[in-house]
Amino acid sequence: MAKLTPMMQQYIDLKEEYKDAILFFRLGDFYETFFEDAKTAAGELGLVLTGRDCGLEERAPMCGVPHHALNGYLAKLIEKGYKVAICDQLEDPALAKGLVKRGVTRIVTPGTVIEDSLLTETENNYIASVWLDGKNSGICYCDVSTGEFSVIECTEDIAGPLGRINPREIIAADSQIKKALKMFAGTTLRASFVNPYYDWAYEPKTATDALKKHFKVKKLDAFGCAGMPGAVNAAGALIQYLSETQMNALTHINRIVTYRDSAYMMLDNNAIRNLELTRTIMDGGKKGSLLWLLDKTRTSPGARLLKKTILRPLNDREKINMRLDAVQEIADEIYLREVLIEHLKQIRDLERIIAKISYKTINARDCLALAESLRALPALRQVLEEKGKSALLQRIAAKIDLMEDVGALLDKAIAEDPPVVITEGGIIKEGFDAGVDKLIGLSKNGQQWISLLERKEQEETGIKNLKVRYNKVFGYYIEVTKSYLKLVPYRYKRKQTLVNCERFITGELKEKEEEILGAEDRRKQTEYQIFGDIRDVLEQNIGRMQGCAAALAQLDVLQSFAFVACENNYIRPVITDGDVINLSESRHPVVEKVLKDGFVPNDVYLDRQDRRLLLITGPNMAGKSTYMRQTGLIVLMAHIGCFVPAKKAEICLVDRMFTRVGASDDLAAGESTFMVEMNELAYILNNATEKSLLILDEIGRGTSTIDGLSIAWASIEYILQNLKAKTLFATHYHELVELGSTQKGISNCSVAVKEIGHEIVFLHRIVDGGTDKSFGIEVARLAGLPKTVIDGAKHKLNKLRANEAKLAQSLDYTSNNEVQIPHFASLLEKTDIDSMTPLEALNFIHALKSEMNDELDGGKP
Asked: How far is CA 16 from CA 31, 658, 758, in A?
């Protein structure tokens, strides 16, 4: 019976442990895949499928990639949602007795990537764990490349908070995976990779014990997790999943950050999308978003923190003002701002360097980057201590640990231009270790001896182009071109024949080779051991580095806010505990930045009494949406501690911001444009409070005029009577203007338009009072519709208006203002509608329609 070779049996045994992953098996300079994994890898990576003898009658399908190119191929598989188990050689093949020992050292998934080449510098790469249990649902999310580990206890649908996090990968309990997939189906989360994990990992005791073991605590209360059972379940499962896949101590994940809804303004995914906070609606890019405008950060951690800050506005007046105090100081003090910018530019990505220390993947060049960052710290702390008077800047200065001991170690130990691979030698600076210095001396002397030998042999043989060379396969050798072979002496022993030359060895050279290479090998081993000791010292200081890195990222965000404020003439908003939003000459921060012509500013005033709801009418393209969006953006900017584009700004605290803007469908979920609109409106009306800000544009436009008008009318009344939320409501239903005179709390506004003959000019000014004109055909003309279409539309509009007038004249109004059409009322009274068949009903309606058309055309019933 055929039997597998020992190496292939080793592969089969390891694959049995990692059935759900593609196993990359290290063989020499390649990572190989076999059998079904090989077929998958070949297909997904576009590689040639080969085979290998494995002891069976048929060759094993095989597909491999060079070890130095692993990351590129890994990126393609991860992007497609595969798990990849990395199997490495656990001992030096040269020292191994028999089969080289191998083992899986890490499982790479979309949410656990740490390789720089697979990450975006300014973006977090999150993996999330969810526990679904109604009001006790919880989320835990982690970026293993930075060590961030956070939990949220959800009092709402978890899809909202998850959407803000935007994880690359989500795990859920086996028993809840179908429920999770259904919940994510109609959201952006459906693009995430969702994987099941063991139910037992989510059990309260198991989860709690796993967290206490990892964080080395007796209770979780210090992390603020008390009363958050769902979040604890999710967090415990995630820490077990990470331990299982990453196979290291994860020492850089050393605290739990707890978020509670009440501390932040809640933003749903629609608000994030419609206000274009992090990317634009048009192309999904960063340029043109609020993030693009505010991002003047100088470090990668600062850029990542800025995005999180925008998506998590504060809802605490004291904390907001602390940020505003710091921003004002940096904005007002030019010297402080310039010093911060100059030295923050020297700070490398400390968060991800720290992760490499924890993973033991840091190399000598990363150490140089760390040392460079540490050299910038004294100037940063000094300028903050001298110029920073605000409480927040003083707090940041106190958290900047100069870490002179760590910096001094790196400056003394690491060579100035080390190789990337830490096993090749050349990473330890001369003068740091006497043993390494001795071996370096032997190596240098050997190289000098080789150079002298080359010159001596050239003189003795007369072969002017004779070279003494080295490669890993043959060691040192003497190379002679074919044209000089007749001059080669008999003491040369032929080693290799090539097309253009011959290679030789001598006894003298062979003897010296052993001495030189022995010194080189000992030097590499010694340097590697010393570097391991340095890495251990760095690991012991991870906590200090993380505290400093967090402070620097926060400082970077504050200077970015200050820089933007100075660059764009923003003012400090006044944050109040009252009920008023009062903006004087406010501007859209992004539109004014990209607009070639001057931006027209507008005032905004909302309170809880007479102006709770601004009903905004006017034509398209006149600026209604811009006006509403800029109000939302300014309110949000104030809540994140940023200055705002206005002449004056008084802003009360807002607990939630909702938007319903534009038309979109969700065909994948089987929902029409109108259904999507109604779903979004229902969510807003069911979740908004009197402290919320609502931005509603064209409610009801996705259905017929009468239905849409009715929905819009009823929605306004519900907001006024039940929610009492501050609302900006733009509409083309001019009938709604009547509400301004009948309902307390509504103020009619419109966009000013100037008519010059048949032309219109948009003034982009919001003025009090409603309007009954939409200028739709004029807007269509400006958009470039053919003249024939425009003329036809005008003709049809005039005819419809004439019919509308005739219909109005034919109506009899009772004293109760109820509309009556005598003939049709009489006809309906005589008809037994309840006994009609569907076909009879359709015929009856058709007859009524014909008679009405006759009457409108001047005929008699």
From this structure: 18, 50, 78
